[in-house]
Amino acid sequence: MxxxxxxxxxxxxxxxxxxxxxxxxxxxxEHLGIMLSRASTFGExxxxxxxxxxxxxVLLDLSLPDVDDSEILVKQIVALTKNVPVxxxxxxxxxxxxxxxxxxxxxxxxxxxxxxxxxxxxxxFYSIERKKIQYQLSESEKIYKSLFDSSPxxxxxxDKHSLEFIxxxxxAIELYGYSREExxxxxxxxxxxxxxxxxxxxxxxxxxxxxxxxxxxxxxxxGSIIHVQIKSNPIEFNGKEARVTLVxxxxxxxxxxxxxxxxxxxxxxxxxDGSELVxxxxxxxxxKYVSPASNTILGIPSEEFLKHNFFYSIHQDDIxxxxxxxFKLHDNxxxxxxxxxxxxxxxxxxxxxTIVTNLNDDPAVNxxxxxxxxxxxxxxxxxxxxxxLQRYDIVAKATSDTITDYDVEQNxxxxxxxxxxxxxxxxxxxxxxxxxxxxxxxxxDKERVLAKVAEVYKNGHxxxxxxxxxxxxxxxxxxxxxxxxxxxxxxxxxLRMIGSMQDMTNIHNYIETIxxxxxxxxxxxxxxxxxxxxxxARIMGIIDLLQxxxxxxxxxxxLEHIITSAQELDIIIRKISNKTELVKQNSLNA
Length: 590
Hints:
With 590 residues, this protein is α+β, with helices and mostly antiparallel strands. The protein has 5 domains: 8-143, Rossmann fold, CATH 3.40.50; 151-249, Beta-Lactamase (2-Layer Sandwich), CATH 3.30.450; 259-379, PAS domain (Beta-Lactamase), CATH 3.30.450; 399-503, PAS domain (Beta-Lactamase), CATH 3.30.450; 509-589, Orthogonal Bundle (Helix Hairpins), CATH 1.10.287. The protein has 19 helices and 20 strands. Helix 1 (17-30) packs across helix 5 (117-150). The N and C termini lie far apart (129 Å). Residues 140-184, 263-333, 388-460 form the PAS domain. InterPro entries: CheY-like_superfamily (IPR011006), HisK_dim/P_dom (IPR003661), HisK_dim/P_sf (IPR036097), PAC (IPR001610), PAS (IPR000014), PAS-assoc_C (IPR000700), PAS-like_dom_sf (IPR035965), PAS_fold_3 (IPR013655).
């Protein structure tokens, strides 16, 4: 809408020239700065209202030659003028419709027969001011509506007495998960959890006409619990007593506060009450903080430790190395210092492992943080382990057996040099998995061996002794006697299987040779009993005939048969004797 103090531009839509001249006269009497434009038809008016010219008011005659329906005419003119006031000029015959035009957006209506300069001027100026106020109010309502609807903070309007939702914004819909239609069928009480209903109801009743703030716990549509801060203020909304409410979701804030509190508790548990010794120092070793663990580890209370320098209790032979590593923090964020010795309150030495972190850039710390732990027992055990490994290595090298050390959890098999000398595999490149080892067991022995190992694992027997064939790198098999020992933890869980594989191939071959020779001797014995029996039977038969025969000639022939059979028997006995002697000699040589 365009207004000026010096001149008013008014469009008069009037087809009757005499009426237009009369209007012009009336206005010139009251105001010299009025500039009139005329449109005698709706078509002309439409062109003028669509032009860049800004009118301050429009005077409309309802009787135009190119529009028959007065209501349509009014609606179209109001749509074209937008925020410019329209004053209808009508006769007595149209008085009733003139009143109706007010509902169509007309600012005022005037009867032509009662028109004079004062009424016309007053109506124009009042209509312009009224339109200006309406425009400002409309803009204010738009801004309010935009602030309410587009606010990132959840907001709603409640009936002051029933607490029913009258209006909700998009942020409230998004936070609570209810649709706008669902909200308008609810009261705010539907959001309260049972534990806080009485408290909120009391606060609401005591402050029904006042602004108030409170903290509440609400439940969303999906059942989630949220913590909110409420600000509520009484207003009048569409003629109803209401309250507008602003909601702030503080769930994340409370969660952050709880997290911070937990972190503080964790810090106390890890640092203040932890087993590690935590210190804050500068590059010169001046101490700013010492955790209470100093008393546990070194027998020196933290307040006493703070009186000395970080390097004060370190063994003289280790100080230089520790200083050099701390100095590296100028170029590194974190450094692990090799183990060093620290003197305790009773003048004993403990081995310490320390990780130092440069947090000089952190204003909350402003120093070097040293996390130290006592590893004396570990160092002592490590020494014992090294000695044990050295002894094991000596034994492994001294024996011709293949020594295996299988880590059950890691599935890693380690071998001594026997894997090369006995089976021909390269110790450095041989596969170290259990599956590879099992694949080298002879197929005829594999099921038996695996069943035996599974039984040991299941029953927890510490030892196992089993003989089987193991494949060499050239594809041949050797007979081995495997003696293994199972190492388990305190709960019986298998940890390691340490074994010794002894080559039994030669012994097995010797036993097999003896068994073959024994079988041959049995065969010879059987042969002796059958080969010798035939000539003996013939001799005995002839002797029986001689005893019962009187013919000398026949007896002579029978004696010749006896001699021949005896010679044959002698030859057979000598051959058998030679074969038996040969088999015995071969057995002894083997």
